[in-house]
């Protein structure tokens, strides 16, 4: 049961933003801008960064839902998602994306963990300043979303099927659900 | 020097926001509702103090000084008093409710899952409402984002702490949506 009186049976962040739509609106606006707005990173890659950080934060709800939407967005290449979540360093994804995921992993520990060598490695593989910026901010944002979802002990479905449906819906973007 | 070329020399998060205004709008709107909205039973000073404490735990110099100066401005205490609260809020003369909320914020800084039923009950027994508990968790979580964003991109921060106390009154007046 959640720590506070959120609508029953509603999973994850959805239950929290229904409890407090005043702040929820801005959280969804931020997610929309970060994950669906203009960026040099594809939407699929951005969702994968989100799932990867959520996994490192041990947030099952965010990891499962963002992995699900990443699989939808990668389409025929959906296997990359589970490959990265299983063992990022040895995954079959591009070296550039690995370098960005490596930075995201550092951000998950703490901002100061990111060093000049991490940045240079990504830049040498073709990462732009905007891509570096967006990677750090997405990783940082999921350090917020994960703590919000687990810090209030919101409902976390265990059935993978529940996330499949969620992922399909999330492809369209992040819109505040109607008030409880 | 920051890890990426921000094309400006503004300090801390300001430099990042000028570099990427699209995401800045969403971040500032979130800060404004969380920290300044008048429809909240936690005072602006109390909310800034939660942000300050989490930034201190995350070792983010820029954020703990910006928000520490603002907390001091609202709560009518000087930077030394804010420092002593950061170092040991349990020994401070803050209310029992505020101490219980800071304890929750400290758990959120570690991980969402670190918040237990006992932390929540302690806050509730000290008079905290569900919305106050919600906002405490979300403010603490959001600073786990802001701190990582600021430090993860290696932004510069003025070392003279008077820079922050001098600017606090103007920021308190302008809020987070007016940047000058």
How does this structure look, described?
- The complex is a heterodimer of chains A (180) and B (180).
- The longest helix of chain A is centred in the last third of the chain and has 23 residues, at 129-151.
- Chain A has helices at 12-19, 21-36, 43-56, 60-74, 79-86, 95-109, 116-124, 129-151, 160-170.
- In chain A, helix 4 packs antiparallel against helix 5.
- Chain A contains 9 helices and no strands.
- By secondary structure, chain A is mainly α.
- Chain B starts with 11 loop residues before the first helix and ends in a 6-residue tail after the last helix.
- The mean pLDDT of chain B is 97.
- In chain B, helix 1 (12-19) crosses helix 2 (21-35), helix 3 packs antiparallel against helix 4 and helix 4 (61-75) crosses helix 5 (79-87).
- Chains A and B meet through helix 2, helix 6 and helix 8 of A and helix 2, helix 6 and helix 8 of B.
Tally the beta strands of chain A.
0
- Whole-angstrom Rg of chain A: 16 Å
The largest β sheet of chain B comes out as: none
Fraction of residues in H or I helices of chain A: 55-70%
Secondary-structure-based class of chain B equals mainly alpha
Number of strands of chain B: 0
Assembly level: heterodimer
Q: What is the first-to-last residue Cα distance of chain B?
A: 22 Å
Please report the number of helical segments of chain A. Answer: 9
Listing every helix as H and every strand as E from the N terminus to the C terminus, the arrangement of chain B reads HHHHHHHHH
Tell me the distance between the termini of chain A: 17 Å
- Give the overall shape of chain A: globular
Mean pLDDT of chain B: 97
Spans of chain A of at least 5 consecutive residues whose pLDDT stays below 50 are none
Query: Which residue ranges of chain B are poorly predicted, with pLDDT under 50 across at least 5 consecutive positions?
Result: none
User: What letter string, H or E per element, gives the SSE order of chain A?
Assistant: HHHHHHHHH
């Amino acid at each position: 049961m959640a720590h506070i009186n959120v609508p029953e049976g509603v999973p994850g962040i959805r239950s929290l933003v229904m409890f407090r739509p005043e702040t929820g609106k801005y959280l969804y606006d931020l997610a929309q801008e970060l994950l669906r707005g203009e960026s040099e990173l594809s939407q699929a890659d951005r969702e994968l960064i989100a799932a990867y950080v959520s996994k490192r934060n041990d947030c099952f709800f965010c990891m499962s839902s963002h992995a699900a939407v990443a699989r939808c967005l990668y389409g025929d290449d959906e296997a990359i998602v589970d490959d990265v979540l299983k063992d990022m360093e040895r995954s079959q994804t591009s070296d550039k994306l690995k370098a960005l995921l490596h930075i995201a992993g550092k951000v998950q520990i703490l901002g100061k963990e990111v060093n000049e060598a991490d940045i240079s490695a990504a830049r040498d593989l073709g990462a732009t300043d905007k891509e570096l910026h967006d990677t750090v901010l997405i990783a940082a944002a999921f350090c917020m979303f994960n703590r919000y979802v687990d810090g209030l002990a919101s409902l976390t479905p265990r059935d993978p099927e529940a996330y499949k449906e969620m992922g399909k819906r999330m492809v369209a973007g992040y819109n505040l659900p109607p008030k409880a | 020097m920051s890890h990426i070329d921000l094309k400006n020399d503004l300090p801390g998060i300001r430099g990042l926001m000028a570099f990427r205004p699209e995401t800045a709008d969403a971040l500032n709107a979130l800060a404004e509702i969380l920290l300044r909205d008048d429809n909240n039973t936690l005072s602006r000073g109390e909310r800034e103090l939660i942000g300050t404490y989490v930034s201190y735990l995350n070792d983010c110099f820029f954020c703990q000084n910006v928000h520490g100066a603002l907390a001091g401005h609202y709560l009518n205490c000087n930077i030394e008093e804010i420092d002593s609260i950061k170092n040991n809020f349990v020994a401070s003369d803050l209310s029992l409710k505020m101490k219980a909320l800071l304890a929750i914020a400290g758990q959120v800084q570690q991980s969402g899952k670190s918040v237990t039923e006992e932390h929540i009950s302690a806050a509730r027994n000290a008079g905290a409402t569900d919305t106050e508990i919600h906002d405490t968790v979300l403010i603490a979580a959001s600073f786990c984002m802001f701190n990582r964003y600021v430090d993860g991109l290696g932004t510069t921060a003025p070392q003279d702490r008077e820079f922050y106390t001098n600017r606090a009154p103007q920021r308190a007046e302008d809020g987070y949506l007016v940047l000058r």
